[in-house]
User: What shape does this take?
Amino acid sequence: MSKSPNTNDRTTTNDTSSSEDSNKRNLRNVFDSLDVNKDGSLDFHELQRGFKAAGLNYNDDQVHKMIESIDANKNHQIEFDEFYQFASGRTGGDHNITNISEYWLQYSNKPIIHDTPSAWRTLVAGGMAGAVSRTCTSPLERLKILNQVRGLQTIGQNEYKGVWSSLVNMARIEGFRGFFKGNGTNVIRIAPYSAIQFMSYEKYKRLFMDMNAENSRQKGNISYSGHLSAVQNLVAGGLAGVTSLLCTYPLDLVRSRLTIQTTASKYTGITDTFKTVVAEEGARGLYKGMFTSILGVAPYVAINFTTYETLKRRFMTGHTPGVMESLAYGAAAGATAQTFTYPIDLLRRRLQMQGIGGTEPKYKGTVHAVKTIISEEGFLALYRGMIPCYLKVIPAISISFCVYEVTSMLLGIDPKKKSGGGGGF
Assistant: This one.
């Protein structure tokens, strides 16, 4: 009896799958034999030692070039995914160190083209993630800001005390649209903000990594780990936060002005807000509270990125974190950063909101604002709106991550070429 076509197809598929599994196991064995410290990645020292043990004498420049040729995420180390993707494309011969290294050496002499995500792909993915996550958490974001500026006399919002009762009153007084006041501006702001922050962090991080690698070479230290120190991560994150803030600050102020409107509407939209602020307060009015914002954004983004990178390095063993792992690390990073920097966020909102309509500013500056708030409202007033903020942070990061991953996949961005972290302030 002859086999049916479907049976033949299944047999061919099973044979192919079995062959791929066998190749992967063989390559894993080669990789593990080189991975002396069993951290899931190969550095310069491990490769050089493995090659010498196999009787292969490659000079330092050749080994560095071999690493660079397949180092997709440019961390100066080779993870198994990178090793497998490269070595599985090799045809003929056994999977042993000698054959693979000879093929690798030839491969490394080809022109190296790092397929990094283009700016527009990063912008679309990051912008989409920010827009969707901010829209989904807009009611809690608005409630946070209303609580932060409650001490000012420019608006009347005694109804906005407590999370649930505030949301109920928001719907009763302003209707369903009240949940999303200022969200349009926030969405317009968050797209370039997220993209600039992400790309800036990658740029500063790469700068530090290249500096570390060069310093290690000059000192003869051939076992550079490819990781940034905690201080370098903090600096890279802080600079990324400041860079993105400077580029989008006027939109943040306009968003805040639109968000705090409750029963009376002084501003009719984004353009009208820009025009009114400039007319009544001058062009400098668009940058009210920027210094305080920098004081808050720099440590917020720095702590955010550093916490995420630390958790990933602590619990990851040479593989890309999965969805649930990234969600957990991101939520922990966001909550940690928010806890340390929340009072500064409240201060910048107060400074942004004062002087509306040409009224006399209540605070003369950051220090005076701190003294006045504590004197008139108590120390805990510096943390007003913290609960809605926490309730917003975790779902915002979760939604943002999921949307970013899906959009990245649709745009063909390799997850190994992305860094984790980010987030708005």
Notes: Residues 219 and 307 are 29 Å apart (CA to CA). The chain is about 65% helix and 0% strand.
